[in-house]
Design goal:
about 130 residues, alpha+beta, six-stranded antiparallel sheet, 4 helices, about 35% helix, globular
Length: about 130
């Protein structure tokens, strides 16, 4: 899965912005000043099963996390460097493979992450972002 497809989808969401976190080397996505996604390659010496994987971390509904982890145990991991109860990390190298989710599912999960974070923003911020779209 190419980062371009991810960037196009998330860039089309109202108020979404992204920037490279220079210290970590991660591409981070925000809405209303709150992170909803990040794309990165885990260090080779990171703890298993994350080491060396090209990951996309997303906020996710806890019930959906359980479903995804059961269906794609090698491709959908508990969120790297985040709360695994509410975040997932998708191995982008497995997207479209027999062991991984489809590209469309990953793009849908990007939108879900955005919606979950957007819903927690103050109503004033939500209105401002919706008006600027």
């Amino acid at each position: 899965m190419e980062a371009l497809n991810i960037g196009e989808r998330m860039g089309s969401l109202p108020g979404a912005s992204n920037a490279l976190h220079e210290v970590w080397g991660w591409m981070v996505w925000w809405v209303g000043g709150k992170q909803f996604a990040c794309e990165f390659t885990a260090a080779p010496d990171a703890k298993p099963p994350y080491a060396g994987r090209h990951l996309l971390s997303l906020k996710c509904d806890p019930d959906r996390i359980r479903e995804l982890r059961a269906e794609y145990p090698n491709a959908v991991l508990p969120g790297y460097y985040s709360d695994g109860r509410t975040w997932i990390s998708v191995d982008l190298n497995l997207v479209g493979s027999p062991d991984g989710p489809t590209e469309e599912l990953v793009l849908d999960l990007c939108e879900m992450s955005y919606r979950l974070v957007f819903a927690k923003l103050p109503k004033r911020v939500q209105r401002e972002l919706a008006a600027s779209a």
